[in-house]
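pls ignore typos typing on phone
zinc ion + seq
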Amino acid sequence: MNDFIHAIPKAELHIHIEGTLEPELMFELAVKNGIALPFKSIDDARQAYNFSDLQSFLDIYYQGADVLINEDDFYQLTWSYLQKAAAQNVRHTEIFFDPQTHTARGVKFETVAQGIHRALKDAGQKLNLSSKLIMCFLRHLNAAEAMDTLEAALPFQKLIAAVGLDSSELGNPPEKFMAVFDRARKKGFKVVAHAGEEGPPDYIWQALNLLKAERIDHGVRCLEDTALVEHLVKTQIPLTVCPLSNVKLRVFDDMKQHNLKRMLDLGLCVTVNSDDPAYFGGYIEENFQALQTALKLDHQDIFKLARNAFQASFLSLTEKEKHLDELEQFVYGFGEQ
Ligand code: ADE
Ligand code: ZN
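k done
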């Protein structure tokens, strides 16, 4: 089963590039850029990655991102992730970035976007790994700041496929960002939003009805609302679930309590993703493995999850077909062995 999980072609749709910053690179960049870190050593940093909820994680995550200053730093961060993803047979990835985390420290929007983009382009050429970029607004900041960020992004629009919404969910409902998402949609951006991670099912409804989200990031609390589940099954709006993240941030007490198998069996379009792998103890393959062991997923479940991810991506129909064909051939070939 582990070989199957490793080798199956995968797409990853929920990954924060700042959440792929491993302590080794964090320390290297801190020294290079003369930034003081709140950790004494790499081990000390890993020890501190013990979270009680989303906010306790975000506090540490934003501090870590302070070491990213130059375009090359963003390149190196992204390239490191892409190499790991390619080694786990990820064929396509849709990456979040949080421009406000950097522009608030005086780093230019352009520095962030170009550094990430250059690595994505190299991965297309050297790693057989395609990608899209999703710009997230920080929901703990106000709507006017999100609108300013959207304006700053417009000159780089050809690098960015979609907008999203992340950071502290409770108390920051999607409705707060209706105007900025309206404008983003009019400008031609696709739309996703984190909802129903810690927040109630009503936040998922708001993301769908008010922001017109085409995908929901996390969404695990949807099971508390039968009408919502019915709607999500009917529309096949994808839910990008992040199992190790959910356990690390105490959305579920342990992996055995995770509701992903129930979601799958209800016919929801769920996918498996790593969210912030440097902080949560694993990349996409480790997420699949942890889930499979805890929930006793079978080969069909893994196949379905991999299939859902390509279908839920923002790739063109032709590109999706190509990946789905490769996936089917892989599964067929694996059965023959
Ligand atoms: N930013 C990075 N990871 C996040 C998560 N799991 N939820 C909300 N915002 C985030
Ligand atoms: Zn996330």
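The pocket of zinc ion (ligand 2) is lined by residues 14, 16, 166, 194, 217, 275 (CB under 6 Å). The two ends are 13 Å apart (CA to CA). more later
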